[in-house]
Structures are given as C-alpha cells and as structure tokens.
Amino acid sequence: MAGALATRAHKLAKTYWETPAPKVWPPPHTYGQLRQLSEVLLPGCHFQRRTMWRYVLTWNEPKA
C-alpha cells in the first residue's frame, strides 16, 4: 500500500520522462521467488522490500 501511494505521489510531483532502459511487464519473478532465488545463490543474504516496487539485497562474502 505504501508503495502504491509513494508511486502516485512521485508521478504527480515529477514530469514524465521516458527512460531508455528495457522494460519487461509483467515482471518475470514475484518478490517471493526473488527472495528464494537470492537465498539459494547468495546464502546469508538479507532481502528488503522498498517503496516504489523496489528491493535491496545485502550480502557479505564469507570470510575464507
């Protein structure tokens, strides 16, 4: 809900700009699938959802 409100406020406050970045819709993975995949590929990582449909993965390389 907070993400939807932040996105709407951002759209109202900013002018439209078409980015050259490629876009895929619908997204190929859900947040749950991304969390599971990140745990498999990066054991011990921390997954955080952020506003405006973004997420952050934090991972520290294990000490040898």
Description:
This protein is of the alpha+beta class and 64 residues long. The chain has one domain. Helices cover 36% and strands 16% of the residues. The chain has a two-stranded antiparallel sheet with strand order 1-2.
Give a quick rundown of the structure.
The protein has 64 residues and is α+β, with helices and mostly antiparallel strands. Helix content is 36%, strand content 16%. The protein has helices at 2-13, 31-41, and strands at 46-50, 54-58.
Which strand order spans the largest sheet, edge to edge or round the barrel? 1-2
Rg over alpha carbons: 15 Å
Proportion of beta-strand residues = 15-25%
Report the principal-axis shape: elongated
What is the distance, rounded to the nearest whole angstrom, between the alpha carbons of the first and last residues? 42 Å
Low-confidence stretches: none
Structural class: alpha+beta
Mean pLDDT reading? 85
The DSSP helix count reads 2
The number of domains is 1
Largest sheet: 2 strands, antiparallel
Please give the number of β-strands: 2
Helix proportion: 25-40%
Order of helices and strands: HHEE
What brief labels describe this structure?
64 residues, alpha+beta, two-stranded antiparallel ribbon, elongated
Topology:
Layout: H1 2-13, H2 31-41, E1 46-50, E2 54-58
Antiparallel strand pairs: 1-2
